[in-house]
């Protein structure tokens, strides 16, 4: 007879994701997850594995459901510097306002945490980075085709630069940087590559 779960694994994973995102894995104990989800420790382990496996599942969910859809809009046909500006405007708004203000980005937070050394976690981080850079590059190449970039701008290098700016915004917003300062940094970065 199959094991019947008496809880919603999807809802439990979302609760764990929120805890890991806000606090980080090191500061989130299994008992915190038990308390937040209402699911006992043995059921969590039976469903997700140990805490590290649960963290990896939460990080994967974060990338798939929160990051990737936003990145997709960057690489959409007809992208331009305006699409990149809109991406950064949305990023700053998400990091500085609303229910997740000053939480930063779960990915950026993980890069600075001990969990980043886990090969499975690194794989998720690298996939996230490749998707971000790839979509930024696509938007920059479209902008170049539209005559919006300086002729000497390398879209590959500029995409890496803008990805680093996004990570910096995530980290700085976690520590209370103002929206004005973050927007000014974006304006300066885009002014440096615009024709």
UniProtKB/TrEMBL annotation:
Segments forming a coiled coil: none
GO molecular function, one term: DNA binding
Keywords: DNA-binding, Transcription, Transcription regulation
Domain HTH tetR-type: from-to ranges: 6-66
Gene3D superfamilies, per database record: Homeodomain-like, Tetracycline Repressor, domain 2
Alphabetized PROSITE patterns for the sequence: HTH_TETR_2 (PS50977)
Transcription regulation is among the record's keywords: yes
DNA-binding region listed in the record: 29-48
InterPro entries with a match to the protein in the record: Homeodomain-like_sf, HTH_TetR, Tet_transcr_reg_TetR-rel_C_sf, TetR_C
Entries under PANTHER family matching the protein: HTH-TYPE TRANSCRIPTIONAL REGULATOR YJDC, TRANSCRIPTIONAL REGULATORY PROTEIN
Name of the protein described by the UniProt record: Transcriptional regulator, TetR family
Upper taxonomic lineage: Bacteria, Bacillati, Actinomycetota, Actinomycetes, Catenulisporales
């Amino acid at each position: 007879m199959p094991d019947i779960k008496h809880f919603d694994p999807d809802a439990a994973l979302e609760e764990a994701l929120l805890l890991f995102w806000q606090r980080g894995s090191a500061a989130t104990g299994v008992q915190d997850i038990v308390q937040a989800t209402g699911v006992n420790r043995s059921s969590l382990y039976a469903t997700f594995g140990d805490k590290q496996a649960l963290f990896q599942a939460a990080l994967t969910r974060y990338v798939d459901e929160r990051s990737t859809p936003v990145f997709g809009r960057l690489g959409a046909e007809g992208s331009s510097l305006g699409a990149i500006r809109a991406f950064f405007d949305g990023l700053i708004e998400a990091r500085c306002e609303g229910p997740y203000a000053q939480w930063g980005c779960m990915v950026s937070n993980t890069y600075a945490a001990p969990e980043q050394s886990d090969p499975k976690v690194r794989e998720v981080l690298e996939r996230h980075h490749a998707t971000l850079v790839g979509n930024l590059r696509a938007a920059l190449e479209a902008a170049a085709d539209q005559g919006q970039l300086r002729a000497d701008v390398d879209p590959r290098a500029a995409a890496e630069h803008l990805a680093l700016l996004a990570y910096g915004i995530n980290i700085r917003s976690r520590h209370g940087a103002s929206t004005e300062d973050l927007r000014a940094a974006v304006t300066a970065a885009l002014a440096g590559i615009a024709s």
